[in-house]
């Protein structure tokens, strides 16, 4: 293992997606809480998953 010098810093974003065929668009959020709030505002039923960027 190296010192990690020069490596890109990875950021986690939370993707809210709807796989129920409703046509609602996916969106990215900085925190899990933001994604949960957006899901509730959209009527629920979405899936929140963390993604490394």
Distinctive features:
single chain, 53 residues, alpha+beta, three-stranded antiparallel sheet, 1 helix, elongated
Please provide a written account of the structure:
By secondary structure, the protein is α+β, with helices and mostly antiparallel strands. Helix content is 19%, strand content 28%. It is built from one helix and three strands. It has a three-stranded antiparallel beta sheet, with helices on one face. It is elongated and about 45 Å long. It starts with 11 loop residues before the first strand and ends with a strand. The relative contact order is 0.33.
Topology (SSEs and partners):
Blueprint: E1 12-17, E2 27-29, H1 32-41, E3 47-52
Antiparallel strand pairs: 1-2, 1-3
Region (Disordered): 21-53
Biased composition (Basic and acidic residues): 26-35
Q: What can be said about this structure in brief?
A:
This protein has 53 residues and is of the alpha+beta class.
